[in-house]
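Lay summary. Proteins are chains of building blocks that fold into shapes, and those shapes determine what they do. In this project we predict the shape from the chain. Here is one chain we studied, written as its sequence of building blocks.
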Amino acid sequence: MKNWFKILLDLSKIRISVLVAMSTFVGYILAKGSFDFTGMIAVIGTFILSAGSAGLNQVQEWKLDKKMHRTSMRPIPAGSISPRNAFFVSLAHMVIGSIILLFGNNIEAMALGVFNIFWYNIVYTPLKRITAYAVFPGALIGAIPPAIGWVAAERSLAEPQILIVGFFFFIWQIPHFWLLLLNLSRDYERAGFPTLASLFNDKQLARLTYIWTVATALISLMLPMYGVGDSFFIYACLTFTTFWLIWVNRSLLRVSSDESVFKTAFMNINIYMLLVMGTVSVQALVWG
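And here is the predicted shape, written in a compact code that computers can read:
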């Protein structure tokens, strides 16, 4: 039983699915100014849907995962579960998550969740085997979960607050992925994925990533301009996190062959996202 529980956690890419659920939480409380049972349903439904999509991705790519050191011990390539069983487990997750969003929230929330599965598993997953630039359309995947929380609170997607939040999540995905690539480019190449590492050397790619990192940080300063809070707290916190990220990741401009630079920068941009999500959440809960 314990072994099956671990398989389910690994199949769902638990850390990614938790982050997806957290971004849905942010979208909901930003829309509502509070967190209630309906918000909990949206978060749970999105988490289960994300777990199913992550599992389906592993079914799609298990042969490639087997070639990569980072993914070779995932449940399917490790032989812990068959591709067929993993598919049905993932399908069950996706059906359950969709039903929760449909009946616990509304059809708009379910439609966005299903669209995200379509975009991730049907569009992005095959596309990243074709072009190294798949990260750009793929970044849309990160913008959808907060929108699920937003519409679950009966708000319109045409409102400026969710548009700027979605845009911020979209832009953040790009340096996040490129930093992952800088850490794991050899692994991706081993599996046959086209990567930007074949087009740019590490120094060039690191500098491009830093430019996108700065852009991400500066875009966060636009959040209050579009109605995402108007307190000293949010201005102070976003200003601090912006200049903190720009400062701590400046080592990308003088990158050497030391891979610890990439690992630290990757950790920093993830911490930064959590800080911004926390800031926006506190702002919405305390000041509305």
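What the prediction tells us: The domain at 1-156 is CATH 1.10.357.140 (Tetracycline Repressor; domain 2).
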